[in-house]
Amino acid sequence: MQTQLDECLGAGWDMEDKSGSEEYAKLKTEVRDVEFKKENDETMPTIRIIFLEDNDKFSMFMRVK
Fold first, then answer.
1. Cα dihedral sign for 7, 8, 13, 14?
2. For each of the chain's 65 residues, which pLDDT tens digit applies?
3. Main-chain dihedrals φ then ψ at residue 40, nearest 5 degrees
4. How far is it, in rounded angstroms, from Cα 22 to Cα 18?
5. Residue ranges covered by each domain of the chain
6. Are 65 and 46 in contact (CB under 8 A)?
7. Taking the model in full, what pTM does it have?
């Protein structure tokens, strides 16, 4: 999935992995939380994608701001 995201966004995006954030500390499931920001361009949106695993099913949340 990460490779596909990289291909869609193209070059020049910074990626911040927030998966180890304290807000997920009490969860017993796997969480993948990544925020993408365009390098040196404050006019571009920030994209945050979160994947949560629950009983062999995955949910995806995406925020663009």
1. negative
2. 778 887 888 888 999 999 999 999 998 888 999 999 998 898 999 999 999 988 888 899 999 99
3. 55, 25
4. 9
5. 2-64
6. yes
7. 0.80
